[in-house]
Design goal:
The structure is a homodimer.
Chain A: H1 2-33, H2 40-58, H3 61-71, H4 78-95, H5 99-122, H6 125-146, H7 153-160, H8 166-189, H9 205-219, E1 226-230, E2 236-238, E3 244-248, H10 255-274, H11 290-304, H12 308-321, H13 330-337, H14 354-369, H15 378-390, H16 415-435, H17 439-444, H18 449-458, H19 468-476, H20 483-496
Parallel strand pairs in A: 1-3
Antiparallel strand pairs in A: 2-3
Helix pairs in contact in A: 1-2, 3-4, 5-6, 8-14, 8-20, 9-10, 10-11, 11-16, 12-13, 14-15, 14-16, 16-20
Chain lengths: ~500, ~500
């Protein structure tokens, strides 16, 4: 009984962090969606202050006492264990770093972001280089404080994808790279012509919004516990499982963009809406990891949303709503949304080549963190890899090494999650196909509840209680493998491009 | 130099309160404007937690030390003096009450709100009565702790309208009541017929929104530091002077509602946008009082927005945008928006009779707080006064004594501010007319900057540094008087109704 009471006390403490984090998330959502232009300065100050209060609670002596107390107790249940482990991780992440070094890093990271923006705008890497060098040095230094097992990069990976190692990534990404390059070669030699011209017709925003909202409702995104707004870049956030916010961005001359971003963010959103009430406020009330989260968004966007079965059901609806598609067959529509075209920019990549963009970043980060390459070498290295894997070459660094914000604040180790999402998703699909043999026949009939239920029961209901490696093992009975995704890609594209 | 440093430290402390208050205001804005339905529970918990943190900062020992330190210093400037005085007020307001009594009151007040909602819905005062009795008892008890000078009700008035007393209100409200009743009599005997039928045509929301936005920009509401959204009841909030939010509610079969609510909230919004940067974060970065705030909203809504000059300028614009007004003359439009019709519900009242609704509430509150009437007598008393002053009688308590939320949490002393806003506004107008002799000729030409500038220079720039009584004295050279508003009403309605 004493343990239960003590844990309740701990939960009450965590709840405070949760309240402030939700206030913070709301402030950030609003900043990106509705805030008047000139509100930015006051908002940033407020966010800085509240972040500081969250930080204080996460790293307080009281927090340390809770962690140490519960670490000394042997009979914790899974939730309690995970809650303590999670707090330990956050605690160590900052407390192991000398305070003055951490503060110095925060300063540099913030300036680095501004430098990156300017560098990207002017397509001039030299503006960003000195900042990226400092940020990189800090990260290398911090790994010294944090410690590492095996590869130094493992420590960074662990923040985003607990349990994933360089050894594992080298294996699965190695296989994946080989397969994608091979499939890409076949596609480039295919005689099949895929046109996407129709998507560039005029599609009024309101018309898109109505259709996408209908789609989201149909696949299971709940508008009583969620909403959808517009922002420059689509994103998902939440303030608990009953208040989830996704955003999209409409292009009136590009139909696919908002459509698939809605399904993508909808996948994230459904995950958050499915988190059980009893995890709320434990700091485990989110996805298991960045990669598992991404597996859900990509599942809805690609595995379901870019499948032929999905459009067998929805294409008549498209035809009814959009005269723009008059005369276009389902097959050509389906091919159009699955066209493969190697490109320079990650966020514009198709489903096949997307992972190559990630693998390039992974390979570079790993070398950089281990000191085997230096910041000054990055543009050359970047361009060489794009040339080698994708056959394209940036004409300047803005569409090359400067395209992503992630490195500017030292978020090394983040990128792999995106590609891991693809691998997790396909492996989940393998299991789902066994559990629901007529899965895609159901999709053809518009039955999305069966998918939603499977994801809820197997993945969503656990929140962040289990690490991704445990979760995938429990759900699929296997360790993470690249095979499922590779087979999925091969099956899909061999049909479309007839090879 | 030491004083300056110490005050800076104090300001840094106040800044924390400001950050949390802004987070809270954002959470409340979002709750009323965009929050998904089922987010309410988590949001309320978050708001309760953060409110508690604000309360802690406002009533901490550290706060007491600051207050006592600065109260002992003689050479504070106006801003410092006001900041300390304001903090003392908030500190005493709760600290003078025994903690257990305060906590008990908060519980009762919250349940009382729910009871009021139900009572109003069922038009059954007996549901609300026991709660209102408790809330009233608490307020009477609290006045004992707080102390009072002259009338017990003065203490409550002081929270909303510092410096205003029952003595003063009896004087100005007494004159005002007499005048309104007299003017109302003349109007009811007038042969002039005013039709408002045209306003009930169909006005699509989008069409209204575009026109009202144009209007707001024109009168000076800045959309780079503000926005406008929709909510059930219009309101204004802000998170600093660079992020002000107003809302409105569109009725597609009632043109006037959103139009004048936009001008009203716009007046509040302009006030907040004009607060100078150096008051930000001092807790003086808002209006001088509820009543002064209301004077600004009513100035834009009524004195300017319901003037003939205003529509001489804007009516052609109305004609261009709204075919619904084809064939209606400017004069008839002007009369229509100024039609007087005694009614039961405060928030639907016209400019003339509005103050009578307030005076009734004031008279009742004063008696109730002094124990000269009891809660059980309120419905009868209410109906009698409506009959006497306005000549109308509620058919049930939902459109009578239950119509407003204010009493449910014990906000006695709040109502008078609404009518004070009318008095302040007309008195400001008196001064403004002297300073700008061609004021309304300018309005006719669409020059609203001259008004905005006068309000900014004379009122807005002071934030909450001066109490309303000081402010009105400084700006107009006189104490608060009812004469200006009475003359304004007489002039306006004698022309419209030809008496």
């Amino acid at each position: 009984m004493e343990l239960v009471e003590k844990f309740q006390e701990f939960k009450d403490y965590l709840r405070k962090i949760d309240y402030l984090s939700n206030a913070l998330a709301l402030a950030e959502w609003d900043m990106r969606v509705y805030m008047p232009k000139r509100g930015i300065e006051a908002r940033s100050d407020m966010v800085t202050y509240i972040s500081g209060e969250v930080y204080k609670l996460q790293t307080s002596d009281r927090m340390r006492e809770y962690i140490e107390y519960f670490e000394g107790v042997s009979d914790l249940d899974d939730v309690m264990k995970a809650a303590v482990k999670n707090c330990r991780k956050i605690y160590d992440q900052t407390k192991k770093i000398p305070e003055d070094r951490y503060r110095e890093f925060i300063k540099v990271a913030s300036r680095s972001g501004t430098a990156w923006e300017e560098a990207k705008e002017k397509a001039d890497f030299s503006i960003f280089q000195p900042y990226l060098e400092k940020v990189t040095e800090f990260k290398r230094e911090f790994i010294g404080y944090w410690g590492y097992e095996g590869d130094r990069y493992n420590t960074l990976l662990d923040f985003f994808e607990p349990g994933i190692t360089v050894e594992k990534l080298d294996e699965v990404f190695g296989q994946l790279k080989k397969a994608i390059v091979e499939i890409l070669g076949k596609i480039q030699n295919s005689r099949v012509e895929v046109s996407t011209a129709v998507f560039s017709k005029y599609f009024p925003k309101q018309q898109q919004a109505e259709f996408n909202t209908m789609l989201l409702k149909k696949v299971g995104y709940d508008f009583e516990t969620g909403r959808m707004d517009e922002s420059v870049h689509p994103f998902t956030t939440d303030f608990g499982n009953k208040d989830v916010r996704i955003t999209t961005h409409y292009y009136e001359n590009e139909f696919r963009s908002a459509l698939f971003s809605c399904l993508h963010e909808g996948g994230h959103g459904i995950y958050e809406q499915d988190i059980p009430d009893d995890l709320e406020g434990t700091l485990l009330d989110g996805g298991a990891s960045m990669g598992i989260h991404e597996s859900q968004s990509r599942f809805y966007e690609n595995i379901i949303g870019r499948s032929l079965s999905f459009w067998k059901y929805f294409y008549p609806e498209i035809k009814r709503n959009f005269k723009q598609f008059d005369g276009l067959s389902l097959e050509d529509f389906y091919k159009g949304i699955n066209r493969v075209e190697p490109s320079l920019v990650r966020i514009e990549a198709d489903e096949l080549t997307y992972s190559l963009h990630i693998i390039i970043r992974y390979e570079i980060e790993k070398e950089l963190i281990n000191g085997r390459v230096e910041v000054k070498d990055l543009p050359k290295l970047w361009n060489a890899k794009y040339k080698e894997y994708l056959g394209v070459e940036p004409s300047n660094d803005a569409e090359g090494v400067l395209q992503d914000v992630h490195w500017s604040d030292g978020s090394f180790g983040y990128f792999p999650s995106y590609a891991l999402g693809n691998l997790y998703g396909a492996q989940f699909l393998g299991r789902m196909n066994k559990d629901i043999p007529d899965l895609f026949e159901r999709v053809e009939k518009g039955d999305f509840e069966v998918i939603h239920k499977w994801l809820r029961d197997n993945i969503h209901r656990h929140g962040a209680v289990y690490e991704p490696s445990e979760l995938i093992k429990t759900v699929t009975g296997e360790e993470l493998k690249a095979d499922y995704f590779i087979k999925y890609l091969y099956d899909k594209y061999s049909k479309i491009y007839e090879f």
